[in-house]
Design brief:
The protein is an alpha/beta fold. It has helices at about 15-25, 55-60, 80-95, and strands at about 5-10, 40, 50-55, 75-80, 100-105, 110-115, 120-130. The protein folds into two domains: about 5-60, 2,3-Dihydroxybiphenyl 1,2-Dioxygenase, domain 1; about 75-130, 2,3-Dihydroxybiphenyl 1,2-Dioxygenase, domain 1 (Roll), CATH 3.10.180.
Length: about 130
Amino acid sequence: MTVRLDAISIVAADMAASLSFYRRLGLDLPADADAAAHVEAVLPGGLRVLWDTEDVVRTYDPAWTRPQGGDRLGLAFRCEGPEAVDALHAELVDAGYRSHLAPWDAVWGQRYAVVLDPDGAGVSLFADAQ
């Protein structure tokens, strides 16, 4: 039996707000997807990112409730360089998204920052230190 990671799923309270955030991170998502209950984007290499509204999740898991507390899964977006981490972090914060961790030089040799998506999930921005 062969198993491979095929998709990462995101549950969105507000589909349009979630897709707007991820468009700013370079994902190609059509504008008409904002009103959809389920959206898929295929990344280079074939990995898919899936979005479902909370209402869709409750159709197959009626007991589902919005998670509380810290992240259980995180997405990390590689930037071109340390300056790009700072610039993208500033762009997202200027657009009204919340910074969780301002850019810093991490001990593991990367420039790193974390911004919260519209549902409060931490999204890492990073680049190799130069």
